[in-house]
Inverse folding.
């Protein structure tokens, strides 16, 4: 977050503008990125719930691609739309957890044609878009950013449940390196609203169907180590997806299980969306910056968690990414050696 007296004053002024624009608007739209994850769903539903409860007289619409069934217990999940419900442009439109306008996908036009646009995000790759921007890369999640923008005294238990869930997902249940003291303090405030953390974590993060466990087992059984065990990958073909009758959301958790393999620096999971087109998920442990690699393929994300869509043969894709991982590791090793040399000769 912005720090210092001047920074705090600037943030206060922007928060005042946020409230002003909300009060001015009669129609408000909200969207998040394509293939919405826990933080995207949590932030969008959290803001939707907050606005709906605070301003019942306004028309507030939430647009997301279909979300996994495991999130359906969240209040107002059934209100999520895929087709526009308003004739004309919205007075105000929010983009949440979205690093660039393209990631709004088919809802991008809703955002761009709105009279006033607000972008709230935590991705460091976000260079800023919209009329008013709250982009804080040091925050664990967009849900954490929202907690600094909303009046927490007026956040209901339903809204708190959404926001807590988003923080849980983007921090890997508070174990990723993006978890800070601020993150834990924010989570504590949300817990005081009366939510049940064990229900949220189990239902949306750990619980799996029998078929999801089957595909997890298959992916692990077929995984392969490369680069002297520093890279692990697995491929889920379109044929596998059709055989098990699953969707891409059913693959959640596989990449994280691959990542915790001993000795691994980078984990890759490829799932075939159509012939010759793969969605690539990447996770890193200590040294590798997967956001840099994803960016080379037009994707993005975080240093330790990123993704992209790549055309080609799975073997070629894996080998290209593995080469990039190797180059990063070589560079890191050389820099470490230079540092030791400089210290010895200083």
């Amino acid at each position: 977050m912005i720090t210092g007296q001047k920074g705090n004053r600037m943030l206060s002024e922007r928060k005042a503008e946020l409230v002003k624009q909300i009060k001015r608007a009669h129609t408000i739209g909200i969207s998040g990125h394509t293939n919405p994850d826990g933080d995207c769903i949590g932030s969008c539903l959290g803001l939707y719930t907050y606005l709906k409860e605070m301003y019942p007289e306004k028309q507030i619409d939430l647009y997301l691609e279909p979300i996994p069934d495991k999130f359906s217990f969240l209040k107002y999940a059934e209100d999520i739309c895929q087709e526009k419900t308003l004739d004309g442009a919205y007075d105000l439109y929010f983009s949440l957890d979205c690093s660039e306008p393209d990631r709004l996908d088919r809802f991008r036009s809703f955002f761009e044609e709105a009279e006033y646009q607000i972008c709230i995000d935590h991705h460091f790759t976000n260079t800023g878009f919209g009329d008013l921007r709250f982009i804080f890369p040091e925050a664990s999640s967009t849900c954490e950013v929202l907690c600094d923008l909303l009046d927490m005294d007026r956040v209901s238990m339903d809204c708190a449940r959404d926001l807590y869930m988003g923080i849980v997902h983007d921090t890997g249940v508070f174990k990723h390196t993006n978890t800070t003291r601020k993150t834990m303090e924010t989570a504590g405030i949300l817990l005081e609203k009366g939510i049940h953390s064990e229900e949220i974590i189990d239902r949306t993060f750990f619980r799996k169907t029998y078929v999801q466990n089957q595909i997890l087992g298959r992916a692990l059984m077929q995984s392969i180590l490369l680069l002297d065990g520093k890279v692990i990958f697995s491929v889920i073909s379109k044929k596998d997806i059709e055989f098990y009758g699953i969707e891409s959301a059913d693959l959640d958790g596989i990449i994280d299980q691959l990542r915790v393999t001993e000795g691994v620096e980078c984990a890759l999971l490829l799932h075939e969306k159509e012939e010759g087109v793969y969605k690539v998920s990447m996770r890193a442990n200590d040294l590798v910056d997967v956001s840099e690699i994803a960016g080379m393929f037009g994707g993005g994300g975080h240093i330790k968690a990123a993704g992209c869509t790549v055309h080609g043969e799975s073997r070629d894709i894996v080998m290209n990414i593995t080469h990039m991982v190797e180059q990063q590791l070589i560079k890191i090793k050389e820099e470490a050696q230079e540092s030791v040399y400089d210290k010895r000769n200083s």
About this structure: The radius of gyration is 21 Å.
